[in-house]
Records
---
Amino acid sequence: MAFVRLLTIASVLLAAAPVLAQNPPAPNAPAPAPGPTSPSDPSATDTTPTGTAAPSPPQTAPTPPPPVPAPATQSAEEKKAAEKLKREQAATACQSQSPDCDWMATLSSLERSSIRRAIEARGYVIEPSPWGKTIGTVNVYNEDVFSEKNWLRFFNYFHYTTRESTVRKDLVVEPGEVYSQEIVDETARHLRDPVFSSVIAIVPVKSKTDGAVDLLVVTRDIWSLRLNTQYTFQQGSLTNLSTSLSENNFLGYRTLVAGTVLMDQGTLALGPLLLDKNLVGKHYEFRAAASTIINRDKFFNGDWATEGSTSSVRLTKTLWRLSEAWGANISFAHRFAIERSYLGLGPRPVYCPDGATSCMFPTLSQAKMLPTGEVFDYRYRNRSYSTSASATRQWGSALKQQVAFGWNFDALAYSVRDSEFAGSAEQYAAFKNTILPVSENNSAPFVEYSFFQPRYKTRRNVQTYDLAEDLRSGASFDVSYGLGLEAWGSTSNFQRGGISAGYTLGFAQDASATISASYATRYQTSEFRDNTASSNVRIVTPSIGGYGRFVAEASVATRWNDRVTRFYFIGSDNGLRGYDINEFFGKRLASTQLEYRTTPIPIWVFRAGGVVFGEAGAAADTVGQLRIRPDAGFGVRALVPQTSRELFRFDLAFPLDGRSPTPHFIAGFQSDF
């Protein structure tokens, strides 16, 4: 294990610089469904409707094995392995409702520290056997961002700690109920929001009333008044930047108010954002954002002229608990913008030979050899509106079923101005035929049926460090159908639908294996158009000796009979980290990634660790043209729990396809997959 030690020590040294970064909500991206999710892990994502949290089912566990006696002298690795074994034994005892249940041992070091401070401040005593007792009082203890006894406590004066009443409005469990670990776990998942909290821990405590048990709910805020920043630095350039000056916990009500800047390779978008996940305490989520779009290159040359705007407004009646029967949603969005595509650090070239009826997409090296007058930038104008309204009915217990019905309306308009295109009339027509999406109105009522099994467990150190992550296991299924007719406003008659299914197996305390697949299509003019299909397999191994774990993922995707040319892309931060941005593209995609992720080391306010990874993937227009490209590298991960649940990420990757092994450096946020 000497290699693991060296990797982890290097991780700590390299990760000790950044402290104040954080991942804010992007101002103009589609709003994600609330609730704890992991952006790139289907097995860890709650796919219930917006705002739903779900509990673990009762489990019958075997009698826990006797503790393994520790040797008189333990190395750091042996202590880490012993700590992991102790947590597993404690979790087994509590699941089996053993009188030997040690609630504190089931928690992470961060959670234990918060619980200890709450007990010391309030004088509570943990109840080891709460089962079958009536809940008397639910006690809420809100910790400051900086709770440890050090000079950082000074910064708490600039943070408004979440109000106790705000937390109480989000509790699923209520006084008077018989203690249920499933409902307690559901409450923890519902409160565990990466925007507002770093620690959520709930333990039973002794009640002054005979035959009753009280609950202690401990929360620890994330620093709310700050300059949030998320970025991606690759190929020597800052390709993406999301930053905002925000108050994430306005007056302690868990309301986010922000002024945001979102930068990609072509534009800057600036504007306000408002997010309230529990409007007027009635479990309505309200989100509103607007922005002005400025050309990035012109901006840095002193030209602030706008080239578009975006806005979105959404109000949702959330299915915030499993017992909730009805949910609803209404939304509106607009986007006036110039859409661009990039290959590496420059615009994607489009090759339109004079006299041809369609264009082609050369690589950068090929584009340099083509006549200048026949190569154009991938760019067009988008002027679109969309609105939708829906309602959802939920029922079931062991199998949660949902039926959603509603209406979507989209007004889509795409164009290329004559003044912005330097080619001939024939090239202009070929460019539009190849590049432009179809301008149309889509007005379609829809119905959707889905189900999932509400089996949940808590694990740590997969997507983040030491903080609780929610894994849903079991089967899931979703099918939808929409019908568009000219009679109610569509440009043409069509039908569209999709189907997806998946299964997640949780095993060995904190490991999982997930398989999923999906298909979507549009039936129009007597043929199936815009077909897409994909499949994904993801495996997370158990922690190996307390040192770390392997995480692997493999994906394939295909599309066919598109109404306009569309591709899958791979390269750099979207897979194959050792290659250029979007270097490989086509209608077929195959990729696989494997990482060894070390267990984090706590050091002051940091949690730090490292990864070693290998990847292989390809994209092309046909399966026969796929040429698998490998790469390998290593990286550093770091977390500051007081400021974010998202990891800092620093990766150095080397291409292994025979070219000069020039390393690619990527810095950003979140685990890569």
Note: Confidence is low (pLDDT under 50) at residues 1-65.
---
Amino acid sequence: RSVERSRRRSPKPASVAGFANTADSDMTDPDVRSAIRSALSPRIDITRTESDAGIDSIVADAARAFAEWSVTAAEHRRAVIGRVAAVMAAERFTAMAVMGDETGKTAHEADPEISEAIDFATYYSGPGIDLVESLRVDGLSVEARGVVTVIGPWNFPYAIPAGGVFAALAAGNAVILKPAPEAVRVAALLVDQIHRAGVPTDLVQLVVCEDGPVGQHLVTHPEVDTVILTGSFATAELFLGWRPDLRLFAETSGKNSLVITATADLDLAINDLVRSAFGHAGQKCSAASLGIVEASLYDNPEFLHRVRSVVESMRVGWPTDLSTMVGPVIVPPTGPLRRALTSLEPGEEWLVEPEQLEESGRLWSPGVRLGVRRGSWFHRTECFGPVLGLMRADDLADAIEIQNDSTFGLTGGIHALDPAEIEHWLTHVEVGNAYVNRHITGAVVQRQPFGGWKQSSVGPGNKAGGPSYLLQFCRIDDGSDDTAFTPESIEASYERAWSEFFAVPADPSGLRSEANILRHCPVERVVARHDGDIDHLRLAASVTGVEFVGSDRRHEPLDVFLASLRPTDRVRLLGAVEPEALARCHAQRIWVDAAQPSWHGRVELTKWVREQAVSHTLHRHGRLPSD
């Protein structure tokens, strides 16, 4: 009898109504590999904007396009954005080719980025618009804000800009996309796809300009309502220094770590640590830069030997070779990355010493540092490249202290098979995206909405790809009949939203193999500078359990208010906004919200919590949990 050799793998059909994630390509399919190899990076002409006058013209065109788009029906916006998703799906391999050619992204990293971009389009035009429309039904006035500028990164040059663009469009705004200088062709392809799908050319515009005065004019332009940034925290501070009243939402830096305890499955833990550290050559903002290892493992030569073996087995090369596991860095290393790849701090040694592999300076074999000490340069510094530091922890409590001892709080993980250890870690870890027994990169829309805590974000922290992200692209007011709401009805709205949404961990994806929970964690304290009317805020504090402090500007001097602030506060500036208060809050890295409180619990209580996405692998070697 002959052996059947035909392929039997195919994406599993979506089992739920509504939003479903896009399947990645199956790299075991020879037709897929052939399509990737044959895909060409097309010639893309780029027009640069060289002057402030050019920016003024672009913003004016966007404002005119906004006036028409903002009043279109929700169903029309859904249909248009849906057509964009279809174009992106049809041109998946072209986009992969452009990413590989311009930014050095391998096929294995570029393919899920296309899926993520498609997911952003379908999620924001689906559940995102649904939320906005439900608020209108409840009596709120919900309007688009105007012109939104999206400042994109080079490490995820397709999906992250697409997410900002589609969220803004779904809410009814016009968009200006300014890509990173290293990724302008990828952004140009994205905008071209958007236009060919039927989005008016003035509604979404590409701006390629230098990052100096012309770029500053775009960011600070008075007709730009909101800026969405993906970049460093230093860049976010720079923007706020240029324009203190800038409405800025940013996903910023990270120094991420994965804890490995003595109870871990070491094969899985080592594989996930290495995957998290060196995927996309360590150039993901979510990459594991540190492995924090319990002492009994760290001191075991066999554990270190296994780590070394896995790292040394990784194939380094260019994206044109589909077997490449670690691709090039974006440019020859300088600054912190160069230091991390070429020198050690006192007490450190190389477990695997990185090497420059060819003349361009962009291909480096992965490096692993031993003996990284708490508080040292490498413990605290974001290096953004293929180098991993291992740290020794006395026990789990010590590991958590080391992990939390950072100004950043983007992603973090743990590998442990003891449920008590996992629960203890989840209770104490200070990150926006927490991963259990899996790698800590590769957030998927809806499953793991993405965004960090501390200096890993600027704004209230509504996560990209999550249920509240679209709210920041809307102007939400109480409506014409807000006087009809009594303290009792407002409290009831808050309590209903808290009990039905915020206090209930949600897992809308419903996978058996992996739990993906979105949690809303109350912030420590909210401080309001006000003119006397703070009843809404007192009710919100009562419902959420958050400490609330009011500062009445009619009676308390500004300097007294400012002296009382803590770095972990959230500040509400109600009524007249004092410029000195804005500047001082920015200097202390405190997020400021000048919007009036809302009577609607779903809107108001987002400002009293921090979102945390928890992703927990439930299977063991493919064995699913029993029903």
Note: The first strand starts at residue 141 and ends at 144.
---
Amino acid sequence: MHPNPVTNGRSRSVAEPGSGTSAPELVVTKLAPPVTAPGVIERPRLIAARSSATTHRLTLVDAPLGYGKTTLVADWYRRLAREGTIAAWLTLEDPENDPALFWRYVIGALRSAGSPVRSAAEMMLGVPGADPGRAVGSLINDLAYHRSPTVLVLDDYHVIREHRCHELVAMFLRRSPPNVHVVIATRSDPPLPLGSLRASSQLAELRARDLQLTEREAAEFVRVGGGLELGDDELALLMARTEGWAAALRLAVVWLRGEADPGAAIREFAGDNRHLADYLTEHVLAGLDPALESFLLKTSILGRMCGPLCEAVTGEPSAADFLARVERANLLVVPLDGRRQWYRYHHLFAGLLQSELARREPGLARILHTRACAWHREHGTVRAAVDHATLAGDYATAAEIIAGSWIWMVRSGHSATVRQWLERLPADALSAAPELGFIGAFVIGRGGAPEREVERWLGIGESALAKGSAPTGGTPDGGLSIGINGDLVRALFVYRDVAAAAAAAQRAADLSRGASWRVPAFAVLAFLRYLSGDPTSARAAVSEALADRDAPLRPHSTIHALAMKALLELDSEDLEKSERTARDALEATSASGLGDSVGAGLAHTALGRALVATGRGAEGMPELQTGVECLRDRAPVAAHMYALLSVAEAKLGGGDFVAAQRAADEAQAVLDTFDDAGILTTMLADVRRRSQLARRRRRAGPTTDLSQSELAVLRLLVGQKTRAAVAAELLVSPNTVKTHITSIYRKLGVGSRAQAVLKAREQRL
């Protein structure tokens, strides 16, 4: 576990489930429905509809706030679980707009329900910058393999706004096996392919009109849940006022219990639901003692609350007693765990309380949010701390928390959350904290953002520095934004100019002496010097990265450096060592769960090239293809182009001209946008040239003009013998062997040892 960057060494006495920043845990109370409130009535007409949960791909329960969606779906969930169906529950909240966190929770919900899903998908979600779609695909495979009837309930889906989250849910619905069914409870239609599902009879729907309480249900609710006896006319009037809205009816019951003449009170109602809710709030609050009323108003700003948090926010030492009073009075509070430690208010009631707080004491909410931020910060619940700081308008504190915790969030795969934090900060807050601009550039760059967006964030950071703004608090290495500055970001994301990126990497490396970001600086410098055609400098940079004492603590960069070492050994024709180093790099990716990282992609490419070079094309080609897929749509773009051209070279050497041409065309479409692509331009031109030459030679028939000496050398190129070893066996000088090899390559129309061996086998030489 990484040290918590926001606890300042203090221990946690009480913390929300899921606290911590180094590897964010799941809040377990979100993986089960809320405890059923007393007085909930049976609704047989809706319970019968639960059969749709196992006969349709998606069941959509869509109605405005307060119509009883959660209560209904929770009842379905419990009944399905009792019948032996794997029933998984997830209550969604704003933080799950991070795709990685969203699917970590889905996996956690399935595991909590007893689904035997493997850990592979979860490991993929922990890889910074990785596409969560790969993890979703792995999860789908697990569910298909075990074939157990499974229902996944996603409650409060309306809080999800992140487009990528919706895309992946749509993918899950489209590709899940027949044994998997999804139930979504939401306040509005989600941007999912509902039309297609409806047309294929794979969608069951319950809308507000279906969830409205009938007169019989309302009467039972009032009598059983509220302990009130109303006449038929009074019930009918109450129904007319609430229009079957369960939440409004529940508020009315709370109020009417304190009225001497409930019938007369009902007749005083007027207006639509919004006015009715305001009226009910006034009367509910008016019936409470001032201390309890004050407690409700002040704690309404909390999404989740426990006794110690409420005490810190309200200043009331007996906050836990107030919470117990609120629950006993059934004042629309929902317990979140069986120990009655964590609670939340009914969303409607919380909103009404917040409106009343703003009306009575303008400005107090900011103070309360500041106190809540301080408590969450002390207890390590970073997401809540940032949320409350932002709501308090204390953007300097929000910036300080982000600067101290973003690296742990990114390393655990939650870059989207960091991006959302930054996007919520106003321009003046970003101008006051230059490191936030560099953090923003790094985070969105890792997510595949276009160059203009990365440059925009870099401009924010550099402009702030030019104005003399200082970093918000100390950073571990004394540098900006925990080591990510403009030079290193520009080196990481090579969009158009390899030489410029290499120069930026060199500046970052020169500044890195003694800094914690020294290893990543030299690892990226090695790759850029390699692409620049300077293998000597690349080797020196690799040595610096791997020799650094922090290398074991920087697995991403260490894997990247090992992959580069393997490529450099390959170019020096030390094929055996290159293969061994590439396999070491891939073992490191498995050990650290970074199999989908940029370094892993380069390691697969290095291993594939080494295998092809030793005549094992059948083993090498899958490695090369894996490298391409690891690096597709990732930064830096140049790494993907290198992997593509490596595939093109191997395909060409194997005689598959169509596949080689396809890979070359894909690479050229990107490289045409570069001002300077380094050796990539040469690689592409060489593939084009050799492809044309090979086609001409193939049309001309088998090549037979190799001399006997050249044929002798050619036979010894099979395997892993060095030039010196070949020379020793033939009793000639190494220079003579080099001359023969050059002639062999020219006559066969190839450019490498592996391609020469493959061509010789094709032509039966």
Note: The first strand starts at residue 58 and ends at 62.
---
Amino acid sequence: DESNEYLQIQFRINSGVLSNQGQMASCGPSPKVHIAVIDPLRVQCLPSNFGNFGQVNSSICSLDPSSVLMFPSDSTNLSNIPSLIDAVPTGYYIFAYTFITGNFASWPENTKTAFDGLIDPGRDGNPRRIENDRPWLFFCKKGDINSAQYRVGATDRDTISLYVKMINNFYKGTISTSLIGPTHQWNELHWKSNSIDSTLTDSIKLNVMGVKNSGDSTLLFTLPKYTIDIYDLHNRVDASIYPYLKLSLSNEDNIKYTPSQLKKWQIMHAGVPETAINPQKGYYFYKDTVNEGDQITFSVAYENISPYDMDSLMIKYWIQDKNNVLHTIKQKKLRPHPVGDVLKDTVLFSTMGYAGLNSIWVEANPLNPTTGAYYQLEEYHFNNIAQKLFYVNSDKSNPMLDVTFDGVHILDGDIVSAKPEIMIQLKDENKYLALNDSSLFSVYLKSITGDVENRIYFTSEGKENMKFIPAQLPKNSCKIFYNPVFTVDGKYQLRVQGKDKSGNESGANEYIITFEVITKSTITELFNYPNPFSTSTKFVFTLTGSELPTDFRIQIITVTGKLCKTITLSELGNIHIGRNITEYTWDGKDDFGDKLANGVYFYHVITSINGQSIEKRETEADKYFTHGFGKLYIMR
């Protein structure tokens, strides 16, 4: 597509000040030599109707007047190019390039001679040395033959390009200061400019802008040229509103391009105090790595390094967590901070909820959220802020759950008291995150014959069902005492789940135990174990109901009917409702401490509660007893 190829032949000027300029293709698909003349001050092309040099630009061109002068490379108009070059002021840029072909062999001698003044005839970019159909790009600054730059194609099909950086002197510009201040009192503005040649072509003005603590700026006033060199600011600018100033100088000379030169600008103002964090005067940090729940102590010193006293110093602490969320820890005001004073402050904070990599930040003299400004004026603020990284190990260990009925770890299906004391205990190895919240537990109870499971709460209609004993660190163990009263015989199920402060559950599976309640006080027949025995034996039996016997005696009798040993309740030790194996062991001796002879003996149990005999509970083992008497064997 020839039209696309034509459009690819172009040049562009991209100036930071001026809009994009240039030329794309040409006026018609005929061979031409394009010449652009560029003003070095404005970096701007002279229009194609500049002068009358036989250029063929016409109204059908997309840019009219365009940015180039077009000369058909096969016409006698090329002989007018020397007149064009003569008309270009010294110091202006000349850019020339071929469109389709340059037909260099047909160039008039005067045109070649004119280019000899722009580029040395011995260089390959001179038109005298270029083959007839080669693409050609040429750039120079008139009056400086050494500035010539060029590109020549190796064949008639080559694509070539040339990039040139042009530096211009623009006729106007501005210069601004950085922020001046802060201060609580402005005094004087000193400034002076100096004209290079004539002040008549210069236009200069000085803008004084006030800047608030919020950063908002306002043009306060403008000083034109040739006013007084010293200007009073004390009564003109309110430092309480504008603690900062900024100067901006606008300078212009669009005639001689020699703007007035700034000699000085100064602002005199009162100084302000300056504090800085100085770890060399005091610093402490507990640990870089801690366990979750541990407390960290952080302390650092602040020094007034200015010749001005500061008022009471405000300090702010916050944590930036692993998700970059900010958490304010504390903000407090310290005592006044005079010249040379060193202040030390300490903060103590818990790491609970901050598992992972965090940082503690401290800032002296922070922004006042009400005013949006710092609590006090200071020279600088970057040295008021410090950061310290720390890592918190998360608590991943499961706590230990323990459940007892009347102090006993029962087996699934065991009989328990109709009025048991159920103790639920949770222990955690974490020494910092105390188990002090009853919501860490969930307790449920249901009858095996029913489908409804009821959650047991710590209070119900104002009545306390369970009592919570929180943990006291460093021993991180809490307890629940649950004292239900069962009035219906049957089997029940207790379900308990506990978790620690980090959400770790006591186990993958909940604690579930099934137990049986018999509300009536009964006792089963009593067995000795082992039987026969040689050195000692214990006694096994089961109690039901809710009350323990007040009288409990085991009588051991010889086969002739002689009572040889009585074991009392006080000797048996602790017994409880449910299955019992006595702590007491009988060693086979009589009441006088003498060993009984080997052989068979009978034993009988007498029990009562407050004088009322306890009913015997029938079991499959009753067949081993005769009228309530059992047999035991001593074999030594």
Note: Residues 415 and 516 are 5 Å apart (CA to CA).
